[in-house]
Amino acid sequence: MIRRVAASVLILLSMVLVPQPARAEVGTAVVFLILAPGARANGMGQAFVAVSDDATAAFYNPGGLALKCDTESGGPCPRELFLMHSPWMPVFDLDDLYLEYFAYTQHVPGWGHFGLSANYLHVGEVMETDEDNNELGTFRVYDIALNLSYSTRITSRMGVGGNLKYIRSQLHPDEGVGTNWAVDLGWLYRIPGLLNGLNVGASLSNIGPEISYRSEAAADPMPRLLRVGLAYKVMDRPSFGALLLSTELNKVMVNWSEDGFADELRESKRCVGAEYKYADANDAYAVFLRGGYYYDREAGNVPKGATFGGGLKYKRFQFDFAFIEPPEDLGSTYTKMYSLKVLI
Fold first, then answer.
1. Of 46, 98, 281, 313, whose CB neighbour count within 10 A is largest?
2. DSSP-assigned states of every residue in 159-204
3. What is the total count of domains within the chain?
């Protein structure tokens, strides 16, 4: 049997990460699919669906991958390698509870933009016991999703894309493994003319069948996550730097067919963020400062709070960090996140 502490940790994670009305419906083991990766995006309050101009676009909005580079004018488009690590939810005081994200993207002339990424949540090692409480050994509890991305330009300012993902959630290696597949869809548009600098983005993630851990067990729906947002580059001057503002609404769309689409959006999570960048004339060196806020009005104890972070760029390398304020009832220790971006 699975030691009770394993189930307790997963249930608590589900209660923290999934809004109240969805707790009874969303499979607790796959809520990791809505955990936002990337220190840059998290430093901006997770308001990133209309930004999506780096490899994390594969998560937030795969439509943004096609617009990462100015390929229309024949400009270079380097490959991008992205790595992230976060000691997740420090309130649990578990050294082996962490979130990681890996992504690789590459433009193929004449075809579009391709990417490969992985989300990984390691809950930790758990002691297994028998009915007499005799120890039988340990096993790992984890969730992983492998994603294959493709994005292309519809026009010079509009990109669309999608992901095909394989999901594996392991509560127990023998009697608690759930596997599934899902797709994501994304769209990003950069408005021209008088509104040049304004982006509009939307994505729908985790579209797929229900997941279960045993053939005879009840299945849970996937956490289908809808994101819509705006981003606006207020300023971009070599002598003063660049300022980017962003905002986003996102919502786990489980009950929209019963509650109504409009009601679901009214209960959405609201995110706002800002990024200031100061770089040299050739954009070889840069420093970043970021801040944001997120608030979910669907329940009184869901995550809400401030985020802040920054970053340093040196030629083809960029290091970013972020600090995320925890929910009010989960202490005062900020979740930390670190990312490394490398252009190849």
1. 46
2. EEEEEEEEEEEEEETTTEEEEEEEEEEEEEEE--GGGTTEEEEEEE
3. 1
